[in-house]
Amino acid sequence: MTAAAMTTPRVAPRERLIATIARLLDGCRHVAVGASSPMPAAGAMLLRAMRADDDAPMRISILGSVAHNFFTNGGVELFDCAAQGRIDAFFLGGGQIDGAGNINLVGAGGYPDSRVRWPGSFGSAFLAYVVPRIILFREEHSRRVFVDKVDFISAPGTSPPGVFRTGGPQALLTGLAQFAFDRAAGRFRLVSIHPGHTLADIRDATGFTFDHDAMPAVTPDPDAHTLGLLRGCVLDELAETYPEFARGLRAEIDALS
Amino acid sequence: MTRILDIGGLGRLVRSGSKVAVPTDYSGVSMAMTWQMLRDGCDGLHLVCVPAGGMHADLLIGAGRVATIETSAVTLGEAGGAPCFMRAVSEGSVRILDATCPAVHAGLIAAQKGVPFLPIRGLIGSDVLANRPDWRVIDNPFAEDDDPIVVIPAIVPDVAIFHAPAADRAGNVWIGRRRELATMAYAARRTLVTVERIEDGDLLATEMSAAGVLPSLYVDAIAVAPRGAAPYPLWGEYAGDPGEIARYARAARTPEGFRDYLAAACAEAVPA
User: Fold this and answer.
1) Between chains, do B122 and A128 touch, taking CB under 8 Å as contact?
2) Residue A211 pairs with which residues in a beta bridge?
3) pLDDT class for A55, splitting at 50, 70, 90?
4) Which of B73, B91, B121 sits opposite A120 (nearest CB)?
5) Interface of A with B in 54-73 (CB under 8 A)
6) In sequence order, which residues have a C-beta less than 8 Å from that of residue A183 and are 6 or more positions away?
7) What class does CATH assign to B3-100+155-268?
8) How far is A201 from chain B (nearest CA, A)?
9) Which of A74, A79, A105 shows the shortest C-beta gap to B179?
10) pLDDT tier at A8, thresholds 50, 70, 90
11) What is the rounded CA–CA span in Å between residue A11 and residue A101?
12) A118, A153, A244 member nearest B81 (Cβ)
């Protein structure tokens, strides 16, 4: 083991994901996250903590939260705000995500009487078109989720010329890897693989083809300063809105030592 | 004039076959009226979730009261999927009109303005749009180049139902910054509200309170229902009870479990 590796703090997989989310949000002024999205919220809170000394602090809107929500015009304001270009990033998941960046939040196996029905599209059929930086986030990386072609398109990855579209998927982050979405090609490119996994693992668990380097990079670990913020003020802040999640993450961190 | 009734009287104002608009889980769900409607037996409802549904929608679907559900989603949040909704949609026993959140708002806002439709961005190329023949794509009449845009027809609920912290004796209702509750009331033919309490003062008397008020002009009847949103939270009043929602989620996994939960909860929810 090299000296550098010995001084690098050990990192929980979820900490690495949260730090990756913070990197993906770099440069954003206003990030919105869904009501039950603790990981995206944690990433946004981490970036805000990293930028606490900046002149232009980042805004975070957590839907359904009273404390982290400055909207005063009801449920429609988030969507109006997005339509005006005032939201830089939003997170979307999906029961299925395909290689063309299409997402399915509705169901698998037929429609409307789907064999497996999920909650529904929520705001995705709108936000995916108008938020510049859509980050697709799904921890489960399996062929069940990452399919060749979704059974139902809640929101398409790309739109033909002539269709109004100021936003769309930019990245896909999973429990195994990070991808970038090439909007011109309508395809994903593998950016990095999380430590402990191989390109073969990613291929085995992905039902669509994607572009990649011959030797893909490894997702970097957060540095000591970033980890300090995450384990300190960010975890405290997170506990106010997502107490269960914060407890679980704290236990994961404690188990490292 | 806004009538002040008891919960039973409020329930009698909901007719079978009505188009009923209800808010989303954090916005002021009237669980008190949900239980009342379950006791009363109105059915064939067209439920409009503004813009998503939760336990309230799932209970009405599980009890067989909903013919059509128009919504961007139905979920029990952290407790997972809505079991009766998922079962009914898979079996085809409820008609589903899948929407997206801003489209539900757009339809209600069109009704609020008394116009036939409202345009919104997004949606083109999605299967949400492909499965909504009642929505249309038009050419933006103001664009120089081709600019297709979706138009959402006005949604006019027969009745809007929600829960709020307080009303005054004139029927003015305090909705704070939950403006979608006002939109629902503007759009609906009739609005029924349950409240934690009725206050003696005039909510329109000061600018501070008036700014968060839905005037009685839009409110047909109110009833007092303490903790009427529980187990959902009511902003500024009380937190939700995720344990109870999780208990419901477990029970409703089977039709038998749902029936037992419903029978017990309906009996318990009868006001003294």
Assistant:
1) yes
2) A189
3) confident
4) B73
5) 64, 66, 71-73
6) A157, A158, A168, A169
7) alpha beta
8) 29
9) A74
10) low
11) 30
12) A118
CB atoms near residue B267 (< 10 Å): 10
Task: Give the distance from residue A98's alpha carbon to the nearest chain B alpha carbon, in angstroms.
Answer: 14
Average pLDDT over residues B199-226: 97
B98 closest CB neighbour out of A35, A116, A121 = A121
Residue B34 CA to residue B56 CA, distance in Å, equals 6
Chain B residues closer than 8 Å to A107 by CB? 89
pLDDT tens, residue by residue, A123-133: 999 999 999 99
The segment(s) of chain B belonging to CATH 3.40.1080.10 are: 3-100+155-268
Mutate to test the interface with A, among B100, B177, B179, B183 (most CBs of A within 10 A): B100
Question: ipTM of the assembly?
Answer: 0.96
Question: How many angstroms from the chain centroid is the CA of residue A6?
Answer: 30
What is the structure's pLDDT at B247?
A: 97
Please give the pLDDT value at position A1.
42
Q: Which of B181, B204, B205 is nearest to B193 (CA)?
A: B181
Selected for mutation to probe chain B from A121, A149, A241 (highest B CB count within 10 Å) is A121
CA distance A105 to A256: 35
Distance from CA of B272 to the nearest CA of A (A): 32
Determine, for residues B121 and A83 on separate chains, whether the beta-carbon distance falls below 8 Å: yes
pLDDT at A67: 78
Give just the sign of the alpha carbon dihedral B33, B27, A37, B69.
positive
User: How close does chain A come to B231, measured CA to CA in Å?
Assistant: 15
Give the E-state strand segments of chain A in sequence order.
Answer: 30-33, 59-62, 89-92, 96-98, 103-104, 107-108, 116-117, 133-138, 146-147, 169-174, 177-182, 187-193, 217-218
Report the pLDDT value the prediction gives residue A2, as an integer from 0 to 100.
46
Instruction: Give residue B270's pLDDT.
Output: 55
> Where does chain B have alpha helices with state H?
7-11, 31-40, 55-62, 83-91, 101-113, 127-130, 179-187, 207-210, 242-251, 255-268
Give the 3-state secondary structure of residue A129: helix
**Domains assigned to chain A:** 10-93+123-142+171-256 (3.40.1080.10)
Q: How confident is the model at residue B6 (pLDDT cuts 50, 70, 90)?
A: very high
The yes-or-no verdict on residue A63 having pLDDT over 90 is no
Q: B161 near B20, Cβ under 8 Å?
A: yes
Asked whether B163 and B30 are in contact (CB, 8 A), the reply is yes
pLDDT of residue B122: 98
From chain B, the residues in CB contact with A154 under 8 A are 100, 126-128
Where do we find the tokens 């500024």? Answer: B236
